[in-house]
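Run Potassium transporter through structure prediction, thanks.
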Amino acid sequence: MADAIPEPGRGRAPPRPVLPAVLVAMASAAGGPALAATPPDGAAVFGLVGLELGFLAALALIALACLFVPLSRALGLGTVIGYLSAGVVAGAALSISFTRDPDQLLHFAEFGVVLFLFVIGLEFRPARLWEMRGTIFGRGLAQVATCGILLTGAGLLAGLDWRVALILGLGLALSSTALVMRGIDESGERNSPFGQTAIAVLLFEDLAIVPFLLLVTLLAPSGGEASLAGDARAVAIGIGAIAVLIAVGRYALDPIFRVVARTRTPELMTAAALGVVVFAALVMASAGLSYAMGAFIAGVMLAESSFRHEVEADIEPFRGLFMGLFFVAVGLSLDLGAVAEYWLTILLAVPVTVTLKALGAYVVNRAFGTPHPVALRIAFAMGQHGEFGFVLFAAASSAMILPGDVSSVAVAIVTLSMALSSQSDRAYRLVMGRKAPETLDEDFSDADGSVLVIGFGRVGQLVAQPLIAEGIAVTLLDHDADRIREARQFDQRVHFGDGTRPEVLQAAGAARARAIVIATDDPATTLRIARIVRRRFANAALTVRAHDRIHAVRLAGEGVPTDAIMRETLLSALSLGATTLRALGYPEDEAAEVVDRVRRRDAARLDEQVAAARDRTERDAIVSAIAPEPLDRD
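Sure, done. The structure for Potassium transporter is below.
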């Protein structure tokens, strides 16, 4: 593996790989005239010059993103792969300003990560952040150190110089804040044990880039000239910058936003929010610290502000746009020549480094007492390498620690690991396997209610309330063990059992019940239970929750009376319509009459559809033809 990476001075201009014709054709359609050779300075392309050529380049990237992101989502690969693919194709097939200097675009697009950290900071009040200090500086330090040691050791075994191996190991030990946080946000797990732990470690990694960059200075050929006083001065400047941000956030931000809010100018509020982010990033940059950390501190300072939600709503569109641009820039910055020349090295290195990093994350989190499923989830989510690796490798290359070819290969490893990370959640589910449904031992000796409610979810709970309030004996049945435990906390007896099994219904008292309510949320399950009840327990009055109109027609086809079928959105939607009419000035009785007229018309149409679908052999064809119909004005 060591022989595949040339020593300094042995590098040669790598050949540009030949892309498949289909990618070139797609890029041609999206990029248009931007595919032409780069014009000499001052030359025009189809009459476009200067800034207009910049707009053309931006249009080409937008077109590629609009092409590849939907395609990637359709293939189940996620949006990140789409953005990365758009950047790779742009870098390989287009000759535009961004492809000539992708690092500039990447540096600009890092503003997306900055905005992302600002939004995250808005969710963390200072008191809550203080409570997490042990996780941030304890587990975060342990995970980065462990992963760094494992990856540095792999570099030494590959025959790399110890300085090169150390920088590569530390750079690859950092995860992608953008990718991990995007996954946490999409799954809504920001407040889960997995989300909290991952965020804490990511925050430490954002802080760790500062000493890592200082280490590059010390390891550089001229690093011996660095003095202890200079290092102490740098640390003091960093602490001072953080103190300035905290002071401004505590005493100035809320008054500023209060003044801006009084103008009642939405665009000014948006500009103020962006200005706060830029100010915080510049303060930290002037101290040699991370832009993203400055934005995070600004967000934390605004977390207790009454303007927090409005600021977050103003920032959100820019955050999404810049995050997409960031991933496009990552794809653009990929050196396809280095990938083509050292493809075997990269092909071997990516799974090895990702596995080592995931192993380190898993071991550390298990050592801190994290349950196996959560620790494994963290390992899969944080196994990829991150965007701060680009920063560290660029600094090490400029300091002549990393040879140019080694740096290109390292960037390619980081980029490809980020591309593969979109499948980490799928890989986690594959390893964990499908969780077997939990079962509970059940005793139905006290199931003597005159009403049997099957399904104790959001609808079943509401159905049971008026019955219980009237003192009617109700037997509640559900197959979700967690829901049953939650009900026990409120002294509510819910029996565990599968309502699609006749023997369970028999044990739950269906044969003795005067009324049976089917309130399950899965349409297919509801149909199966309705068939059993109609066939075996016809003595009970039956009422059923229907998912939608089509489901109602199918239930009626099983013999359930239409007046016993309640579509779950019908009454609430009509009630909302009546409320809207009253808000428009309609009198109470007139609004009620309009809604009643619509209800009667809907019921008549449903009766027609149920009658047409009586024949079981033709029911599927008739039901599939049901579609919304226009409503004419009376």
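Strands lie at 451-454, 474-478, 495-496, 515-518, 541-546, 565-567.
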